[in-house]
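Continuing from the previous page of notes. For each protein in this section, the sequence appears first, followed by its structure tokens. Read the first protein now.
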Amino acid sequence: MATSSTGGESPVTELIALRGRLIGQVGRSIQLPEPGFTLDLANRAESDVRAFKHIHQTCMLHRENFVAANQIKHLYLIDGFLTLIEAQNPVALYGVARSMVELSAFLHEISTRLQDVVLRLDDRNWKPLGEKFFGLIVRARFATTHPQFRALLAAEGLTPTRLKPFNIGNCIDGLTTEPDHQDAKTRYASLCDFVHHNLSSSSVSNSGSGVVDVARSAGGGELRHPDGSLTVTQYEYPARGKAAQAVDNLASDFLRDARACINWINMLPGSPFPQQMVTTITGHPTGLKEV
């Protein structure tokens, strides 16, 4: 996925340009085969080559499906943010911004875990670590708390471990280890306060507070204080200025998170096995040629 930037422009302008570049890559139809939910190594026990190819090819296909789905989700979030700017909707802007942070943290977690498997893999442990890579990418794709989905997936052989979603708090903690994202935990906490029904989320629903001589209702009524001053909060729809304030607060970090998602996707290993190992064992660089 593209990451280039013209620089020197506003975050919103750069976000629009990023969307334009991504559309050329993501905005096209593609059909990918769905590999199995589980590995079938028992039927390949007589041949390490067949077992190796099975793990390699199945992991590759799950990885490609994972990438395609998350590229589209990523683009939808960018679309949502830009659309909400046009709609001047401050409440929903904070929700989409939080979703982008969560996506970045999730993709970072998966990328980091898969890279760790690849770094530790060698000629002696390729099978168990290949199975670990498979388990991680399957969990990344299919983990869910939805009771009906869990039952269906369990019937297909997915274990409770592979059905357990990655904890977003742990993913955010992992993201903070990156030099450019050390503020992720603080930012995420703030965004949650705007998304949950707390003080911050209420604050974007009014046009501000101040001291006035007379408080006036929508029906024309008036309320006065004996000393001539009233502290009031003004409520109206749309809440004046709050959308522009939300964009000022969010756009730069949203752009940073959007670019980070692209980076984590680009860093995802294509397979548990290094290129040289694939060529040596299968006799073909892609590992797809029949032997």
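Done with the first. The second protein uses the same format. Note its length before scrolling.
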Amino acid sequence: MKERILEMLELQDTFNSYASWKDWRKWISNKWKIINWKRCVYMELAEAIDSMSWKHWKNIDWWIDYENFKVEMIDIWHFIMSELEIYFTNEELIKLISKYTSEKSKIKLPLNWSKNDNINLDKIIKPYENLMLSSLTAKNKDELEEFLKRFFIALDAASINFDDLYKLYIWKNVLNKFRQDHWYKEWKYIKIWNWEEDNVIMQKIIENTSWFENIYNSLKEVYIKI
């Protein structure tokens, strides 16, 4: 586990340096945009909650887009690691992450939504609203540690274990790198490939390989044909 945690931390640092700039810990990008990782977290959490049937005035049938929910949680992990890497060393983070990966939630996200789940919505989304609260308030190391703990509680509530987190993080990191390489910031990147979003294409590719370079090259083979 320690090796995989370190790999994720290093990949995140590398990506941040590439997508923002090498001094990304100074809270500003190479395009002079303010970097606020905690804001990224609560905005992604809002998108995750939007994967559920929570609106009383719209889409009132009960449902959940669980696959999209998982993607949002992995995006959140990118941003939480980025925030923590500013305040903690990799050695400290390996210990902290190892400590909290076994956290359990008493609340579970239903994978097959029902009418009863709609009624219990406030309870179901509690782990994610707790995490959102930390993203708005965490400042010192103790509060950031609680932030990390709440992430793993929220992850367990969504039935995502550490092995899932690692696998999903690797493929999303590859996709993020691929997007940046193909002018994502300049709005020139094509996100829909032959009527399917790139996230969906990626999930098909990772059924056959988990190696960073192999995934990237497989994406490239598909992308050049669209």
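What the second structure shows: The first strand starts at residue 192 and ends at 193. The chain has a mean pLDDT of 85. We return to this in next week's lecture.
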